[in-house]
Design brief:
The chain is an alpha/beta fold and about 280 residues long. The chain has ten helices and nine strands. The chain is globular, with a radius of gyration of 17 Å. Bound molecules: adenosine-5'-triphosphate and (4-amino-2-methylpyrimidin-5-yl)methyl dihydrogen phosphate.
Length: about 280
């Protein structure tokens, strides 16, 4: 009976808010809505932010974080979750404890470190805690190139470096790895995927010439979470996420003076049905 009550696919983002609406929990919830799953959130950090940058941030106390997890565990049936901005080492530890305490389905780790505008969203001291405690819980980790460099302690300049870094992230405990190539300014953006069984592939798309790319990583990982919650396999979910984020970047909307947000209605705009994108 409980299965019937909680049968609609429910997902969770564990991250920071963005008052400007473009990244973090806001981008995740917009993506969940567009992808037809019910989105929930554990707020770890609150940021005062807009498309020009992060003006202030506040980390929530442990009791408030634990209570949010407990409230969800008591009532909902979360099928997949993701992490985003976690701020510092102690918050990473508190989140890890709650990931272990309950079952939230597959865990997608988006190891957010620095915002597009340059603000630090993860204390550099916390990187070791992410490597040692969070990575082993990751069904999939989705670093961008600078994050992959930090997590593997190496410069990444070639495709071979990217592949080596992905293997290193697996050795640290992440089951599957998606290294995002948005920060490499080539004509084609290339993301690299290394799966748990050792198979791999590249995802390619033409670079859209725009600075309206606030929240691209959040949107990609949130879409993957949504697809997993609906029962798709990981490869299908990743390919769908890539198609969705590419469309959301391509169909620019004019919001803000700086790094503008994506168009989370892009699937509808392209006339794509839910099943096609
Ligand atoms: N200008 C662009 N044109 C097309 N695709 C892009 C562009 N920029 C990023 N992407 C794609 O968006 C996704 C996110 O990549 P990116 O490297 O920007 O992540 P990120 O830095 O974590 O994003 P954010 O921190 O803004 O959330 C990847 O699939 C990447 O290839
Ligand atoms: C709360 C929060 N989470 C994540 C990001 C990263 O997004 P971006 O790199 O596009 O600024 C952000 N700016 N704010």
């Amino acid at each position: 009976m409980d299965n019937e009550i909680n049968s609609f696919p429910q997902v969770l983002t564990i991250a920071g808010t963005d008052s400007g609406g473009g990244a973090g929990i806001m981008a995740d919830l917009k993506t969940f809505q567009a992808r037809h799953v019910f989105g929930t959130a554990v707020v770890v950090a609150v940021t005062a932010q807009n498309t020009l940058g992060v003006q202030n941030s506040f980390m929530l106390p442990k009791a408030m974080i634990d209570d949010q997890f407990a409230a969800l565990a008591d009532d909902l049936h979360i099928r997949a979750c993701k992490t985003g901005m976690l701020g510092d080492a102690q918050h990473v530890r508190w989140v890890v404890a709650n990931l272990k305490k309950y079952n939230w389905g597959p865990v997608i780790v988006d190891p957010v470190m620095v915002a597009k505008g340059g603000a630090v969203l993860l204390d550099p001291d916390a990187i070791q805690t992410v490597q040692q405690q969070l990575l082993p819980l990751a069904t999939l980790i989705t670093p961008n190139l600078p994050e992959a460099e930090q997590l593997t302690n190496q410069k990444i300049t070639t495709q071979k470096n990217i592949q080596q870094a992905a293997h290193q992230l697996q050795e640290l405990g992440a089951q599957n790895v998606l290294i995002k190539g948005g920060h490499h300014l080539a004509q084609q953006v290339q993301d690299y995927v290394l799966l748990a069984d050792g198979s791999d592939f590249w995802l390619e798309a033409p670079r859209v010439d725009t600075n309206r790319t606030h929240g691209t990583g959040d949107t990609l990982s949130a879409c993957i979470v949504a697809e997993l919650a609906q029962g798709h396999d990981l490869t299908t979910a990743i390919r769908c996420g890539k198609q969705y984020v590419t469309a959301a970047i391509k169909h620019t909307i004019q919001v803000g003076h700086g790094h503008g947000p994506l168009n989370h209605w892009a699937g509808q705009k392209e006339g794509l049905t839910h099943a096609e994108i």
